[in-house]
């Protein structure tokens, strides 16, 4: 040993080494803890991002499904419009050809044609659109009118109303009074229906047998119901004797009433609804209005 070396200093020098190692270990643990926390935070952020992506994906899928349904609806509406246009063009073309034929005939045979011929032509055109028994519009004229008014109502977003009327216990009337009296009864009912209509465009038609249709453009359900009530009052005033009805001494009507604002080119739902309501009127005892 060197005589000048301090023995206590020599013994004290190695004492600092373990503390350094402990400090290094604590720093490492601290770094690892910080890293774990950072990884945990990144994991949480990733989970949030994934959840948000899934939710957005569901929303996008729902939007795509809605857009697909809307597209299919628009395609259907366009096809219906195209169908109506084709029918309209075909009708116009047919009418144009008929008119050209008439004009050609008149031109070629002007010296042979008199007013009587023209009168017969006009009468034949009228007969093709009117019921021969009652004088009301027939199915052909009704179909033309409903197609026209339905298209107009769709363009202008206005309601089209319809009444479907059925003569109560008409078979029993025919059994008691005979078919000739039955025909006269239908004619008198047709007069009542026609007398209840006062606007241009309103139309009464014989739908078949003892059923009648009243077409009311630009009329809502309450307005149509009021007209139905007027028809029933007018028929009661007419007092057509029945004699074989469980409802009373006179002819009565059951009436279904419906009104719709057209959304597409198909007027079928209006016919279906008014027919359903007429059936309910019969089921509820007849001689009533169901709207």
From TrEMBL:
Keywords: Coiled coil. The keyword Glycosyltransferase does not apply. GO terms for biological process: cell adhesion involved in single-species biofilm formation; negative regulation of bacterial-type flagellum-dependent cell motility. Residues 22-84 form a coiled coil. It catalyses: 2 GTP = 3',3'-c-di-GMP + 2 diphosphate. InterPro entries: Diguanylate_Cyclase, GGDEF_dom, Nucleotide_cyclase, Rev_trsase/Diguanyl_cyclase. Its EC number is 2.7.7.65. The keyword Cytoplasm does not apply. One of its GO terms (cellular component) is plasma membrane. GO terms for molecular function: diguanylate cyclase activity. SUPFAM superfamilies: Nucleotide cyclase. It is an enzyme of class 2 (transferase). Residues 158-291 form the GGDEF domain. This is diguanylate cyclase. It comes from Pseudazoarcus pumilus.
């Amino acid at each position: 040993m060197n005589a000048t070396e301090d023995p206590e200093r020599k013994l004290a020098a190695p004492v600092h080494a373990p503390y350094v190692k402990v400090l290094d270990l604590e720093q490492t643990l601290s770094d690892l803890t910080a890293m774990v926390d950072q990884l945990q935070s990144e994991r949480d952020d990733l989970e949030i991002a994934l959840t948000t992506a899934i939710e957005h994906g569901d929303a996008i899928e729902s939007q795509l499904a809605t857009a697909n349904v809307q597209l299919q609806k628009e395609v259907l509406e366009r096809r219906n419009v195209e169908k109506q246009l084709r029918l309209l063009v075909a009708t116009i073309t047919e009418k144009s050809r008929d008119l050209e034929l008439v004009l050609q005939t008149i031109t070629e045979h002007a010296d042979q044609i008199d007013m009587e011929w023209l009168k017969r032509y006009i009468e034949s055109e009228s007969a093709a659109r009117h019921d021969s028994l009652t004088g009301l519009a027939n199915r052909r004229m009704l179909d033309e009118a409903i197609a026209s008014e339905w298209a107009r109502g769709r363009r202008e977003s206005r309601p089209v109303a319809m009444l479907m009327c059925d003569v109560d216990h008409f078979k029993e009337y025919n059994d008691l009074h005979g078919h000739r009296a039955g025909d006269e009864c239908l004619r008198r009912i047709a007069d009542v229906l026609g007398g209840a209509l006062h606007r241009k465009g309103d139309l009464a038609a014989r739908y078949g047998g003892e059923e009648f249709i009243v077409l009311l453009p630009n009329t809502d359900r309450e307005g149509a119901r009021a007209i139905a009530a007027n028809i029933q009052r007018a028929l009661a005033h007419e007092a057509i004797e029945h004699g074989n009805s469980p409802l009373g001494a006179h002819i009565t009507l059951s009436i279904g009433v419906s009104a719709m604002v057209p959304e597409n080119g198909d007027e079928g739902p209006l016919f279906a609804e008014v027919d359903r309501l007429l059936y309910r009127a019969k089921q509820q005892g007849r001689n009533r209005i169901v709207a």
